[in-house]
Protein 1
Amino acid sequence: MINFPYSNLSFAKLITKVPKLKFIIQRHLLLILAVLFFLANSSCNSELALPIFPQPTPLPVTTAPEEHLPKAMVTFNVKLPSLITDDEIVTIDFLDEVTGMVFNIEQHEMGISDDLNYTISLPLTIGSIVKYRYSRAGFFTSNEYASEGRPIRYRLYHVEAPGVVSDTISGWSDAPYSGDTGRIIGRAVDTSTSDPLPNILITAGGIHSFTASDGSFVLEGLPPGTHNLVAYALDGTYRTFQQGATIAANLTTPVPLRISKAPLVNIVFTVKVPENTMPAVPIRIAGNLSQFGNSFGDLSGGVNSLAVRMPELSTLPDGRLRLALSLPAGAYIRYKYTLGDGFWNAEHDLEGNLRLRHFIVPETNEVIEDVIDTWSDQKAGAILFNLTVPSNTPNDDHISIQFNHYDWTEPIPMWRLGEHRWVFILYSPFDNLGSFGYRYCRNDQCNRADDVLTHGSDSFGRVIETKDELQTIEDVVENWLWLDPLPSPVAITTTEVRQRETSFMAGVEFQSYYHPSWAIHLDSAFEDVRSLGANWVVITPTWTVTQLSPPIFEPVPGRDPLWFDMVHLLTLPENYDLKVALHPTPNFPISVDEWWENATKDSDWWTKWFENYRRFIFNFALLAESQQAEALILGGDWILPALPDGRLPNHTSSNVLEDAESRWLDLISEIRVVFSGKIMWALSIERGLSNLPDFLEEVDEIYLLWSLPLAEEPGSSEADLHMRAAEILDGTVRNLQRNLGNPLIIAIEYPSAEGSSTACLPDPLSTTTITCLDIELLAAPHPDISSIRLDLEEQALIYNSLLVAINERDFVNGFISRGYYPPAVLKDKSASIHGKPAGSVLGYWFPRILGLTSD
């Protein structure tokens, strides 16, 4: 729906006043016209019977770029960990990260050199970057695994000339590695400036690592031998670096890297679309670089790219489409045009095969002219999904559709048709699909902001069966999960608010769960935070703990924000007059308590733990400084075993190193060298206030994590809540502030659920709590909205009671609401206050505390 802010202007003057509006109106009118024609002709058997709009005179089109690229013969030699049976073969599998790594796999059977060695020679495009791995195929297929038991995602090879690649397989999915390993450490810097290079993908032996802010990288668990080491920039801005690295058992191989920056050239993509392409719908380019939507992560259903992150083409006067980009010279580009993502609704050739184009970015500016043959795979008729959504759908939400072929793939944006109306036409792929599931959600947040009828990861969704003819599906979303159709106000007791100094920290903390789809929703989130009157936002970037012994902290794409994700995120708060604090938090593969219990915790293990934690926290200290963040928050209750005289959750000794105190003091001193902002320490009021270490005297402020229940049972009065808050503040909190002498910030996390936050659902990829929900309620086909409303009211009353108590006490220097969920309003039982009555409570208090309003 188009909103007209210039209501006092005539329509004719309005178009001249707002030039972009003319395009928007034309686009919506064309889309409505096309859909109406589609509905009127839905019985036709053509690929898509749409009105034939005037087409431009046929233009000469250059031959597909890939046909001009020279090739070189490359020989792959691989050594197996053990003999295979006579009925098994070894294959080399080339992977397609544009379509999705579980789709479109190109397999080649390898020949036998001797019992353990296999070989194959293949012609490959010079300048290309091939992504591949090995498989053992027989009655079952086994993929190669790394020494520590993780599957090999892919190996990299840069084809520069005819060459030989020698690889060693550590183990298979059914035959883990046993033996000694070594590691590679190094630092990547710019050849010209010697500046450190963050976010470079480093691979060897199928092991992946990313360079940190200081350019450092670590590759653990490599079997002895020579491995091909590749340094690859996700956006292609640095030339791919490749060399051999020899690994010895139980030793470290240093590999310093100097990498050259690639110059940028202007590349213009122009494309002629099929005549029956619906006008005014977005057409995007999916590709292998981050600029083309590649997340470099393993996302839902085996896809790797996101439609919402792909660049969209614009329409030229002659009907062709155009996209201009600055791309690094020499970069290898694989790409396709799509009406969806890299898998759904992507272009095909006339035989119904997936189309995947490639070229090497030249050293000079160039125009690429392409022709799309068809969107269809010729296996079934197209399907039009015509959707009506509830009237309480937020105006700035966009609606996504998600498909389930054998698992849920990533959501795809639908096309807005009008007020509460959305459409999407699915053309492909239908090969072997038969019946499949689909569902709708808000802002790409399927499994969280779902249609109430199809919510949850276990839902197969609405079901449809493919047919030879066109189909039109008329759907209605009656209610969205966790979006109350009947919001009710919450009455709170107000009091005279004492204005504080501008140094008072009033804001929200984003939850640590992350998904690459968040990027396009961050502006709206920051705007909402600022509308509360906040002056701070706390960002909680993560690295994942991928190994237990030795303990490894590293970014995992798709689960943790990468460097360029963080840079983009940290440029936005300034637009909303928000100061930024970073609170780095690790993602654990199992519960934190269980992880600590399982750890070796001997002297060597603890030495490596401090080494890797330092790399983790320094990455974000340097990032915070480079992006002018105001504060860095260390600590948290997860870190208690690493403190001096550390204790495990079961209260036994953690065997932390005797010099832990001095290590923490040195770390804080080193951080101050590279970071000029405030250093804060997060303490848990429930678990972290006994045996406080002396080094806390060296931090600037205490960030007190508070989720203590204020009510012993649901339904407590506001007076009772206020009295309990006052007791805690005057007792535990006041004593802490006196003992440490540091300014103290209250950072609360209260789920909008009855009692404590014990009923929490973790993200499927992590044990980090995502949303605290009532399990039985979530499992019900129609959640009880009335019980949600009562819980939302209790959360708001707790917030207000705490703020009333803090208002009466000078020793509290800030109030932060933790667990904010940025991409969508969810009136669920999580701690997030986004769109909830508790957010309105903050909207009352924050402007008055900071003197932004005098009423």
Protein 2
Amino acid sequence: MQPICQPALPHNPAVPAFLFLLMCCVALLTVPQPAAAAEPVAVGSKRFTESYVLGEIVAQTLQAAGVPAVHRQGLGNTAIALQALMRGEVQVYPEYTGTIVRELLKREGNPTLAELNVWLAPRGLMAAVPLGFNNTYALALREADAQRLGVATISDLARLPPAALNRLRTGLSHEFLVRADGWPALAKAYGLALKPGPGLDHGLAFQALAGEQVDLIDVYSTDAQIGRLGLRVLRDDRAFFPRYDAVLLMRQSLPEAAQRALVQLEGRLDEATMIALNAEAEIDRKPFAEVARGFLARQAAAPSVASAAAAPAAPAPAPSRPGFVERLFAPDLPRLLAEHLALVFGSLALAVAVGVPLGVWAQARPRAGAVLRGAVGLLQTVPSLALLAVLVALLGRIGFVPALLALFAYALLPIVGNTIAGLAAVPAGLVQAAQALGLSRRDVMRHVMLPLALPVLLAGVTTAAVINVGTATVAAFVGAGGLGERIVAGLAVNDPAQMLAGALPAALLAVGVQVGFGLLERRSRIPR
């Protein structure tokens, strides 16, 4: 009896390569981290110049005292930084007493540090190490406009005729527009009838004001650009704004060694010193870490506030700004690339592992498939920052995990959609021939339909990967790292070169991913 000879099933040479790539993506999520001798203290900072600088000063102070520390910089706004502290994802970060009272504790007044700590104790937090300066909010205009309008106080602004007031274009920061001690309460306290325009990033507001694109902005009293641009800061004549004394907000569980090391910063920065440090970052374009090192070196040589403040103002040659190439290939590039790749390919592996089975299931059920495609399409319409904020709130944590899940959600649509489309394009005759040979539905899918659909499926994976390379830059807002760190830091100090040092590697990475998957896609096409 002659054996039955089955015709050769379609063989796709790219299947092993695709499976190998998927295994490499999964490996990024499962590689164990090396054990450390001691868990480093995570120092946080928010997304503006002064917070970056103070965060670096805190981290370097700890490291100099032999306490391992890492700086998780640029953690979005106050809400994200506070949540990270409450969850223990950072142990300490620079904050201001007025913000603690109103944003965290929802109270009023200017309590002493002892009173503040009584209120913070039930939350497992404490405020300590008053740094020595008050950085209050204020409103500012161009000096020429202030003179023309005759305004020196916020009350003067409120008394302007409606026509003159409404001609003012505002460039208020997003956070100031919604804070409990921000614009809504300020407008009510002073009777300001001005309706603010769209929010503007604080790092761009000064440039917009100087370029006469806006007329009124919110500022911090230690902003370096105030004197440089010759702005008129309106006096808060009704004392609406509380004191914003800079302190270190920390968990009560912060190790004793770390607390002892940080005490040496108490009272070491006055307003003049902080303005000078901000100027080094914003005007001289020095990296935040370099600014912090210079301050600590001056402290070691002359440990008084007065001499530390005077040092930056002493006659000296113009500071050398790092060139673009130097910034591009800075020592943090390997770390940022590794974090970015882990986010992109980790989320891509999850999306393939979930999206392909969903596509297979939906292709056999047209009605359910339509609902599924609508659902994953809806995820694409959610703004990335909004999705990150929701995931941070739901998961109760910041960093890698919420960023990974957000990118996974964005990658689902092209993968699910192309899986359905690729399977639908498989000729019905080939499927029927395979069934006639006695292959089960699973074997037909595995040996016939998926290999033939692979080029279309890979096109969806390519689209998802390229989208995620770009979207992953936003993950820096929640402390997930990646190349977005440079972009966010550059945005904070309005430094195009710093932003480009993050954007260019991300763009090149996207091109590399496009080319790599394109080659794999071409190889996946079965010769006819």
